[in-house]
Write a structure and sequence with these properties.
By secondary structure, the protein is of the alpha+beta class. It has one domain: Sulfite Oxidase, Chain A, domain 2, CATH 3.90.420.10. It has 4 helices and 10 strands, in the order ααββαββαββββββ. The strands form 2 sheets. The chain has a 5-stranded mixed β-sheet with strand order 2-1-10-5-6. Strands 3, 4, 7, 8 and 9 form a 5-stranded antiparallel β-sheet that branches. The protein is globular, with a radius of gyration of 20 Å. It starts with 10 loop residues before the first helix and ends with a strand. It binds ligand MTE and molybdenum atom (MO). Ligand MTE binds next to loops.
Length: 184
């Protein structure tokens, strides 16, 4: 085999290889849906940094979260058309450690507090603090580290999962940062 052999591959074969590759298919689907699709290119999350309203940060590894109280969330994934069981910790537990008000302490202007959840690809979504607090709002929001008993694989070390969303659009894969802000 000579060093030049790859150059003899017909352009049509090269094109077909790219077009029919899984990466191309996922990108094309995302563009058709008018969405930013970084699934294929996102770096795997390895740690999660939580920032409070005071700007103080705490960084968690998977082992750190596994040492906390577990929360399991069984959800229907509208994209995979399957029931999925995620295990992780309640987001409210991490936010409480960052100083967020929960339960009956959440009142008045504190309802202006919100959470920005960000993936390694910088995909970002907002949850209001209220909807992350099961003492105040129906449904659960968790930071998952496993699904159906296995690590999350391409979805990274951490994935945000919520029980109330009908589509998985706010389920941030490769979750790397959670930051508290206030609208006032
Ligand atoms: N990090 C990250 N998470 C993301 C997205 C993204 O682009 N980046 N897209 C969201 C959207 S719009 C949807 S519908 C789902 C799609 O997840 P799936 O490709 O695993 O079906 O992931 C969500 N989480
Ligand atoms: Mo989406």
């Amino acid at each position: 085999m000579t060093a030049y052999k790859p150059l003899r591959v017909a352009p049509a074969v090269v094109l077909a290889t790219i077009v029919f590759s899984p990466a191309f298919a996922i990108e094309a689907r995302g563009q058709a849906a008018g969405e930013t699709m970084n699934h294929v290119h996102a770096a795997a999350s390895t740690s999660l940094t939580v920032t409070g309203l005071d700007g103080k940060t705490a960084t968690y590894s998977v082992d750190d979260l596994k040492a906390m109280t577990h929360k399991t969330l069984s959800v229907y994934n509208e994209h995979t058309k399957a029931n999925e069981s995620y295990e992780g910790v309640a987001l409210t537990d991490l936010l409480a450690k960052a100083g967020a008000p929960t339960g009956e302490k959440l009142r008045g202007k504190l309802f202006l507090i919100y959470v920005v959840a960000e993936g390694t690809d910088h995909y970002r979504v907002v949850y209001s603090l209220d909807e992350t607090d099961p003492a105040n709002h129906a449904g659960d929001v968790i930071v998952a580290y496993s699904m159906n008993g296995a690590p999350l694989g391409a979805d990274g070390a951490f994935k945000m999962v919520s029980s109330e969303d009908k589509r998985p659009a706010r389920w941030v894969r490769n979750l790397s940062a959670v930051t508290l802000w206030t609208a006032e």
